[in-house]
Structure formats: structure tokens, C-alpha cells
Fold each of these.
Amino acid sequence: MIKVFYGDDRVRAKAAIKDFLGENYEILDGADIDIDDLPSIFFGASLLSSDRSILIRDFAENKAIYNELPKFIDSPHKIILFESKLDKRSTVYKVLKDKIEFREFVLPKNPNLNLVFDIYRTAKHDGLKAVAMLEKIKQDEDPIMFFGLLASQTIKDFSARQGTKEKKILKELSKVDLQIKTTKVEPWLLIESFLLRLFSLS
């Protein structure tokens, strides 16, 4: 039986893979598979058992072998193809969508995403107001994830305009990143301190 799992929520996907394949399974990378390997992978028995559990990563990225997949859907083995993304316009998907299971694992959307960027923009003009905004969402956020979003916005600003203030902010951000990773100081305190300093840097 073949299943195709795809998406960016790797934690949930790995749990589902283990649930279907069990604890012990073979792992293959699609990039390393040749077209001549397909019969032995999908129909061949191993030395120890005729029943096999196989995880194949990024099979669809190897177009030559992915296009052959419809020939092997009667495999007696438990096989999961784990793709980071899936092209639903492909011929293979259209042929197989009603014959095998395709299951998507998507990370939940952060409802505070736009507010995170608002906090960053506000901090450039009013650090105290930005910290007050942060207080309202802090209990629902992970500090490391929040800092990652701040970093992405800072890098985006730097890419758009590589001025003196953008360089200063990026340099300060890298210091905070190092502190979060190497000190025992509460991450939220370091983030709030960064937001308060942002105005002077801007």
C-alpha cells in the first residue's frame, strides 16, 4: 500500500509515518533512486522479510522516477512518499488521486502574524507602545518563534534598503540572537529590550 504525505508540518507528518510504518522502516532519498531500482523497491523482498516498510523522501523531485509511480501502486509493501510540496497539476497526481491516499500536513496559521509585524514597525517609532502591544499577545506566543518573525522582518528591511540604520538594527538583532542562544536570561526580556532600543537605532 502506497501513501503520499506532504506539507510543512513535519512533526505531525512524522507521527503519522511512524503510526503507519511502525518503528523500524527503510529510508530512501528520491534523488538517489534510479529508474532501474523501482521494481526492487516496490516489489522486491528484503533478505530478512517479504514484508517491507519504506519511507521515500522527496520522490516527486526526481521527475523521471516520479512519472513511473502509477506502474507500482499495487506494491505489497507499506510505502510512504514524503514530499515537502506537491504539484496537484501533475499528470501523476491526477491519475492517482482517487487510487491512493494523499494526505497534507499544514502548520497552523499564526493569528497574530500581522500583529507581530505591527509591533516591529511600532517599535521603530515608539518602543514603549510596542512592548505594551507585545504584552497583549505574549502568553499565546513562543518567544523563539516570535523572535524569528522579527528577524525575518529585519532582514526584509535590510534587503530592501541597505542603509546605515538597517545595518545597525541587523547588527543589534544578531547580538540578541546570540544572547537568546547562549545566556539564561528570559528570552522575552531580551526581546522587549530590543524593541525598546529599536527607536534609537532607527
Amino acid sequence: MILLLRGKEHYLITELNGFALLTLSAPISYFVITGDMSFKLYLCVFIFFAAGVFKVKARMKKNLIYRFIMIFYCVVSLAIFYYLNSSNFVLLPLIENIVSVIWMREEKLRTTGNTELLKGIIFTVLLAFFWQ
């Protein structure tokens, strides 16, 4: 809220904080259904959806540093999922992030948002099938 009031709503830390709050619904829903709280689920969901922040930054800034950060983030995400003993199959939609920053094409922000929405749906379906 402080960053928002100071006009820093598009800072990376502010956007990641927003996604951290939004992804709290995953472990809460899981708790309601199973009675167990899963911090691992929270981390997996946050890691996936935070990639969208880096993708949008790379598309908006269009420089090599943000493109590299996006690719690096996807690789680190794989390593974290492996460490958490989570299926890497759920990260398949992140392939689009890597492709989109390597072959940068002109597209509207709305198109990027719709793509991220579709990838989120695919991620949720994959998570439902491969969650252990």
C-alpha cells in the first residue's frame, strides 16, 4: 500500500508482492478441500505466476537485460521445482515465455494478458493432474 501511495505501483517488488498476495488463494483453497496446509503449493503457484511479471517487464522494456532475466527465471524455476520434488511438467507453459523473449514480436499488452490467462488455466489443469 505504501508503494502504491508513493506512485511506485509498477516497480518489480510491488508487482511481485501483489502476486504473492493473489497466490495465497491456492493454499487456502487446498486447505479447505483437504484440511492440510501446503507451503510447497504456495511456492509453486507463486513461482509460476511471478514469471508473468518478468515477461511483461521484458515486453515493455524490450532490452536484453530483461530478456535474459526472463530466461534465467524460467531455468531457476525448473531447479526450484526439482528441489521441491514437484513435477516440472506443470511448468510447460513457461516455454512460451522463453520463446516470446527470444523472438520478440510486436503485440498489444492485451494480447500478452490473454496469453498469460490461457497459460494460467493450462498451469492449473497440469497442477491438478501432476500435484503430489
Amino acid sequence: MDEQIKKNVRKLARDAENKVARSLLRWKYKKVGKPVPAEHELENESRYVAEKAHQVIAKRGKTILNELKRVYFKDDQKEEGPGE
């Protein structure tokens, strides 16, 4: 895939994440009865929330993958047994 296409897809994904975060923040402010901040403040907050969520997902994803590998290889060794 062309690098420019990859870059554009990543930008689209980040923009979508920010829009979802902005919608959720707007909903949360209304739910708790607080006034919704100005659009530029909401935009900054949504970028921060989306970035933190992205970091958590990346970290947890690595942890889950490592745990799956550990379990898989542990089970694989049990089935073969010593000397097989």
C-alpha cells in the first residue's frame, strides 16, 4: 500500500476517534447536568481523551497478546511431553 494512502487512512481513523470522543463528552456533560464547554475546549478535551484511550488499548492489546502466547505455548509443551 502506498505510504500516502496509509497516512490518509490513519488520519481518517484519528479524526473518527476524536469525533466519537467529542460526542461522548458532550453526552456526558449533558447527563451530569454541566454546561457543555466551548467548541475549541471540547475539541482539545476530545483529542486528549482519544489519545489516552488509544494508549490504553495499545498497552492492553500487547498484554493480552503476550498472555495468549504464554498460554498457547505452555499448552503446546504439555501436549508434546518430555522426550517427544
